Each structure stands twice: as structure tokens, then as C-alpha cells.
Here is the input.
Amino acid sequence: MDLKRKLETKDFAILAEIEPPKGSDIAAMVNNAAKVKEEVTAFVIPEMSNAVMRMSALGAAMVLEAKRMETVMQVCCRDRNRIALQADLLAASACGINNVMAVTGEDPSFGDHHQAAAVYDIDIDELLKTIQGLEKGKDMAGIELSGSPDFTVGSMVNSGLEGTDLDREIDAMKRKIDAGVRFFITPPLFDVSAIEPFMNKINTSGIHIIPTVVLLKSLGMARYMARNMKHVYIPDELVKRIQKAPDKVRECIRIAKESVSAVKKNGFSGAMISTIGWEDRLYDIIHGI
Amino acid sequence: MIVADKKPVEEIIEFVKDNKKILILGCNECVTVCEAGGKKEVGVLASTLRMYFLNQGKEAKIDEITLERQCDHEYLEEIRDVADEYDAIVSLACGVGVQFMAEKYHSVPIYPGVNTCFLGATEERGLWTERCQACGNCMLGITGGICPVSRCAKRILNGPCGGSSKGKCEINKDLDCAWQLIIDRLKALDRLDDYEKICPIKDWSTDRAGGPRKVVREDVQI
Here is the structure.
């Protein structure tokens, strides 16, 4: 069942993040995805996350779609102007990519090409309106298209914010909903109760919240995230659990698996599993959920 | 200098139409030279607004002040005692001045009265043209003193492109091809060998790629 239908029928969707390769060799990416394609509803293809240059989300999504694996192509405004963004969205639609996710994109200074110029010709709200426009058959210049795309559109929401920051984020979220966003992916969730303040403030009618489940790779990573990522809550017990485990990687996989189950049990529309480069472990996390 | 152009008065009226005490604040520096925001333009805008309010049958007090600069704390302090008396201040300084005003005076809205355009020069009375985009990594030393970043439509660093024709740019026949100017200049300086050198890929991190920029000079800091 495809993502759109899963969301419509409230069937739990499993999204899995697959980073495109840094190079033209797609073998590892395809193999990792193929191993879990039966369990995964759609593969989320980041658009050069952290501004690290690699194969484009469009290219990687086309590769997987050609092998009958559904994708969610991320689109950001950092690297392309409005002409290129629209062109790639049309190309994506023509190549069978039916899900797109508008993301802000990190500044080039975060990545591996510090000297690159950022584009940001349009912002994320304008991008979403552009997608709506394309779907209605017109480009940003108002010129009629020969054939129009029909995307299921997603975006990110930082559900881990607090106070007025969270209020602002929810305002931005409402603008995105008005601009056609139907599913939102949250930051990593390690304790379902941590997202409750956010869930209590929003109206989920017509939209789908999909928490991210991140595979912790080590005790160090868990500690680092707990200390430095203020929008992500990692309970101390979880860190201690990894600390005590004789096989820490196996324990981390177990934690990720439990997190996906907890997200499912709590009635969310789906989970987005991010392994941050360990896509070969996706099977261990997903299998049997 | 920073070159600015007057904002359409309708836009300014939209900002202040509901206010009763308005200060028009000019700047004696760049915007005076480019005749967009100096004492003279402050007077013209103030008169225009007075006429607008009169025609609307509304009462409004429009005051005029022109500061030496709006991008320095010390000059902005000169209106400390009066700023809060106004419902709105229309700053005719560049975007720097407007923002510096807004950072300093929190209780009164500051509206821009000009559109800040570029870093440029006065070619002739009433004609200002762009010369610099403040990319933070000046390459004029190798391009004969002519900037391809600000003057080439495509920002090409190894030009010209195929659109250069008879010394003019393809986007506008009235626009000089920056690379034709560079070649002519290097030729005149007997430095055409420089033209043959391939310019390395530009580091845009000193431009806007790294977010808002700052210059820190510890040697002059107090």
C-alpha cells in the first residue's frame, strides 16, 4: 500500500531514511533499501542533509522508484532557485515520485563545501505554495503547464520546542497546512511522553504526525545528543541502559525497535526511522514490528 | 557609497496614514549624495505627507531632522530626548540606518523611506551605477580594477560568456560587458597575461554563504 493510502486509511506507515551515496555507486543504497522494501512504506531521501554534497534526492529517488520502491523526496531551497526547483519537481512527478517533503536545509557552512553560495531564492512557505500551484497546473510565472503533478506533501515540525518558540513553530505549521502539507516529521523521539505538550497544542485533523526514530550508534552519541540537542529528550535511564549493555550496538537497535513500537502503540500515523548512515541495520530495527 | 532610491510615497503613506506625530529622519551621508534621503529629500517627503493629511482632513504633525549618520550610536543619540514623542519615524537612511534606529528605539515604529539598492558611484548627476556587491573577498587586483561579481550579469569569474557582443551584455544592449571592460583595461595595462590565468573557484563564505557577516578589528577596539 502506498504512503498516501496508508495515511488516508490510518494504517501505520514506516518511513526509512536512505541517504543518497557520496558518489555515483548506488549499489549499497539500493541493497540496503531492497532488504527492507517489504516492510517500509516509503524511503525518505534527504536533499543533501547538513549541506554535505552527495547525489541529489531527485536522482536517488528516481533510482529507487525505478526499482519499485516508493520514496519521499526532500526538497530544499538552499541550492536551487525557483526555476530549478519547479523543473525538478516536474521531473520528479514524471519519474513516478509522488511524495515530496519541503525542508529548510542547513547553511553551507554546516557542510563540506563551506565556500558554496546559498541560494534561498524562495523560502519554504513559498516553495509549498509553488507545489500547490504546480498541482493546479500553473508555474510561478502563471504559465499553464502541460500536465501537472499530484504530490502527497510533507514537511518538518520541531515538536521539541518550548514556550513561545513552540507557539511560533505551531503558527508556521498552520501556514504549512494551509499550503497543502499533509504529514509532518518531528525530531527524534526517545520517550513518547516528550511530544505530549506539542500534541496537546495542535489540531491533528487532516494531518499526520510522524515522529522520527533515530538509531543511536553508541553510548557517546546518546550522551552527546542528550547534552547538546536541547529539542531532543533522551531519558537518563536510556543512556544508562546503553552503558550497561555488553553489546551496545545491539542494545541501540533494540531501543530503536522499541521506540517504533511505542510510536505505533500511541496512535501516530507512522514512524520515520533514521539510521544516519547505518542503513544496513534497518532490517534489524524494522523486522518483526 | 551606498546607493538608495526613493520609496514610492504611496508605500510610505500606507505605513503612517494612521499616525498623528511623525518624524522624517534624514541622513547626511550616502543617501544625501545619491539624493534619496538627505535634508532636501526629508523636506520634500514631509511636505508631501502634510499635503496628504490635509487632503484627507486629518491632523498630523510632521517633523524633520537630518542626522550626520544613522549607522553610528553617537549620532542616533541626538534624538534620544525626542524619539519617544512620535507615533512613527520614517528613516530615509539606508537599510543599515533603519535597522540601527529600530535596535535603539524600541517603543516607536521605524519605517524605511528609501529602497537601498547597491554599492555604487555617481556616474553623472542623477545616474548611479553599481560597482560592488561587498562579497568580502576583493578580486579587483587581478581583474584590472573592474569587478565581475558586481558588473557581470552572470557573475562569471572567467569571462566573457557567449552573450558578449560588441562590448555589450546580452541582457541589455545599454549595459557594458564587464569582461570586455576587463580585457580592454588589462590590454591597456599590458597585463593580458593575467587574463589568460584561470581564476580559481570563488570562496563565497565571505559573501552571504555563512550568514550575516561581521568585521572584528581588535587593533582598534577599545
The interface with chain B takes residues 107-109, 114-118 of chain A (CB under 8 Å). The domain at 3-286 of chain A is CATH 3.20.20.220 (TIM Barrel). The radius of gyration of chain A is 18 Å.
